[in-house]
Write the structure tokens for this entry.
Amino acid sequence: MNGAKIFDSIKNIEIIIHDHKEEIEKLDQEIGDGDHIFNILRGLEEILKLKDILIEESPEFIFKQLGMKIMTTVGGSSGALFATLLLGMSKKYDPAHSDLNNISQMFNEGVQSMKIRGKADIGEKTMLDVLIPVSKSLIDNSNETNISKVAEKISFVAKQGMLSTKDIIATKGRASFLGDRAKGHIDPGARSSQLAIEAIANQFIIS
Amino acid sequence: MNGAKIFDSIKNIEIIIHDHKEEIEKLDQEIGDGDHIFNILRGLEEILKLKDILIEESPEFIFKQLGMKIMTTVGGSSGALFATLLLGMSKKYDPAHSDLNNISQMFNEGVQSMKIRGKADIGEKTMLDVLIPVSKSLIDNSNETNISKVAEKISFVAKQGMLSTKDIIATKGRASFLGDRAKGHIDPGARSSQLAIEAIANQFIIS
Amino acid sequence: MKKFVNKVDEILSESLTGFGNAHSDIIKVNLSPDYISRKLKPTNDKVSLISGGGSGHEPLHGGFVGHGMLDAACPGQVFSAPTPDQMEAASNEVFNGKGILFIVKNYSGDIMNFEMGADMISHDNKTIIVNDDVAVEDSTFTTGRRGVAGTMIVEKTVGSLAETGASLGECKVFGDHVNNMTGSMGVAFSSCTVPAAGKPTFELSGDEMEFGVGIHGEPGRKREKIKSANELTKEIIDTILEDLKPEKNQEVLLHVNGFGGTPLMELYLLFNSAQKLLENCNIKVSRSIVGNYTTSLEMAGGSFTITKLDQNITTHWDSKVHTSALRWKM
Amino acid sequence: MKKFVNKVDEILSESLTGFGNAHSDIIKVNLSPDYISRKLKPTNDKVSLISGGGSGHEPLHGGFVGHGMLDAACPGQVFSAPTPDQMEAASNEVFNGKGILFIVKNYSGDIMNFEMGADMISHDNKTIIVNDDVAVEDSTFTTGRRGVAGTMIVEKTVGSLAETGASLGECKVFGDHVNNMTGSMGVAFSSCTVPAAGKPTFELSGDEMEFGVGIHGEPGRKREKIKSANELTKEIIDTILEDLKPEKNQEVLLHVNGFGGTPLMELYLLFNSAQKLLENCNIKVSRSIVGNYTTSLEMAGGSFTITKLDQNITTHWDSKVHTSALRWKM
Ligand SMILES: Nc1ncnc2c1ncn2[C@@H]1O[C@H](COP(=O)(O)OP(=O)(O)O)[C@@H](O)[C@H]1O
Ligand SMILES: Nc1ncnc2c1ncn2[C@@H]1O[C@H](COP(=O)(O)OP(=O)(O)O)[C@@H](O)[C@H]1O
Ligand SMILES: [Mg+2]
Ligand SMILES: [Mg+2]
Ligand SMILES: [Mg+2]
Ligand SMILES: [Mg+2]
């Protein structure tokens, strides 16, 4: 894990999110307030600007800076949550560990922090329905040597998690105000998170 | 001239205006503020309510009461102008005169008062483009014995006057703010006045 | 038509009743004839200011009844001038020893009805005709310019002068002066829906605006493609300045008025554009007011009004006022 | 999209700059991080009130910064909660010896960002979560109710208490109390257009309304055919009363709030409907406020808010205030 790889992943996330702009926009218009895509894109744009400054730095430092940047430029639920994710991740980097081990530990820590920040758990129709299963899958597979197999697994559980948000009501976030009307709609944050996971997974499947 | 005849005429005016509601509404939306038809209808409705109370009174008194009613219930340009017309008319009734003579004198007085009230004259794209020619025609023909011939004449000059408002710019009233954009549109007040004249003329042509 | 309404015919009376009750600490509402007056008659002899006009421009004029501004307001039907008996009744109620000053926006209907109202009263009276809209060419052969958002500024400043016990003549002269120092112009992104009509007065396509629009949902001087805020602000401010011909270092009051359907966020953005432009012309914005004061029901759009300030106008702008829509220092 | 705008990205900063200049007598605006604070720091030790939230609800919250109300407001992007560094910077500027009280509307984004902001400061602080919207069912397992137009009432009354030098704990308790005494519910006739999106968040057909809508152009609890003003007022007021369970002869503050695109004429008509209903239930409307205070950009519609009054709330509602959007007695 190094700066170049981290920024490659972010660039890949940005590409995939851009490709699904209209879809994500629509999801938050249906059961939210329509700003999710703009929050996400603003965040990605801002952190990509840091590439030249941060690329040589340690992953620990990079994640911290990315988290701070998201925290101070995005706003909304997703700003707070993704900042929390990144800041959490920065705490668990250990240069002695393998990449997969690092990612598992870091991601797990990040997602735990998000749960606390959002006072939310699985099944509440949020991005955590994607991120918690992914985190679990990473932990379960942290000793797996075939990286692309892990990538395929997380890609799969992310998609499942995302789809699972469709037919439930929300108990957290803005969609919770809709009650039953939220049913039948995928959670925007779950969709953007799943796409991000997919982008990263694809990178590893290909590489 | 008596109360019954006066209220018959008003009823006829109300019918014809109702039949052209949409058209008049549209004319004031195009070059005005869209309220003309509602002003006119409100006025007609209000004065028709006075029928039972006034029908036995003298034409003088009736016109005065109608003028006061219009004045206090209609508002807008047309309220002020039609009230002025009726109040002016009430001043010139002379029981010694023939109906046609009375109408000519009364109408002439009413229209003169309107010109003063509106500081307007012919050619300014207002209802006066209908009412001034009608008034002149009545005066010119006040000794004519064939009433239906007079009726046909005023019906004709009213129509001409109404049409003449189409291709000129307005220098009075709300349409004057539009400058050249008012061209091509018939003045709403001219149209409603012309329809009123037509209603009365038809009554005399038929009777 | 989507409006909060029970019966279209009763919108006005229900709304006025609500207005009267919501502000019963300072005003009262009389129905048939309709007029709004101060709850308490001023104790000192003063000129009584009465304004009015068609409804649909709220808070103008009823929102400006109270200490330091109007003594009464006569609301007509939506976009129709009020009837003379309203002015008569209001005059008789608020006359306070020093004559009546009518403040009338320059529209045929308003002028005629106020004239007829004035004919009906026995008190000394004068009329100020507000005609601040520079979008309309003025000429002695026409009705001339419309009265728009500058009316509020005339009502505030003359209202303040009247409160000092000034004479009817002094108030009239000062009002005409403020009107002369004032120019306005607006632009609309949408029309509005007169409740009785139930549909918008005009339709604009998605990329068009009415430039130099009035305040009755009526078409403006020209229809154009929409422009950036800076561009259209420049076009409007330039037109106003051409009319007002301010000296270098002139202090002005800048009023950005919303027509009803435009968020405050955009009005403040317009204020920012205009202030920068004015400062580039060495004109100092020393007083400002931004908000929906002279509306056209729910029309989207707004207008700029500039008043050249002198010591007198500034003093009477700053002085205390207590109405439902404008309140400060008391 | 028809809006007064130069570049979509710069709407907020241009608008904030305009806001700062238009009201430079009482407030100042800081950009990056964005916050609005009082021009002059209070001279007495007092609890500092900071609110904020997504933009698009103007005049909430920036319009409520000034004597007797907020010390600072942190505006986020349109409908997006502000970022924690805004709260940190605002706190550091306005801290005045007695701790910071955050006033936060109950939305995940706002709560999380304000919490993160609070984590970043060293001053004593507490948070009031406003959740007055009775349209949303409350339960311990969910996010609970939204914070809507009642927020202004909390800010006004707690702002007044803070001005007296009350402690952080006292202000927090009083704010929670006012929040508990307050219930709101709204209805929308149209959605609104987030500038970045360029098109309305949702579409409603010509005879539909969103019942129990929030303030972000988001869908409400149910979509229904439009009803008469009296009918929908009754449905809303009944729901609020069910929640507030007022005693007989209870005095209340009745607030009719416009969402931005509804004319004052209609808001006063709604006030009239509601007041009659309340008086039929032996509830006395002894304070009232009608206008666009908590908006959703240009959304058409409005909400009712009722606050049960006691001596304390009444005193702090009546006390003097000087902000750009709410001003009386000074
Ligand atoms: N308390 C929470 N815990 C976890 N995720 C949440 C929470 N609240 C909201 N979210 C997520 O945030 C997404 C919305 O993000 P965004 O639109 O950027 O913010 P906002 O809801 O403030 O408008 C939702 O789709 C959901 O996935
Ligand atoms: N000064 C005037 N003199 C004569 N007629 C006028 C004058 N001003 C307006 N009108 C007439 O009044 C009509 C409009 O009436 P109406 O729509 O009821 O009032 P408003 O113009 O006040 O909305 C115009 O079409 C025109 O014929
Ligand atoms: Mg959102
Ligand atoms: Mg008209
Ligand atoms: Mg009219
Ligand atoms: Mg949001």
Summary: Chain D has eight helices and 14 strands. The first strand of chain D starts at residue 27 and ends at 30. The pocket of magnesium ion (ligand 5) is lined by residues B 33, 35, 76; C 54, 79-80, 109 (CB under 6 Å).
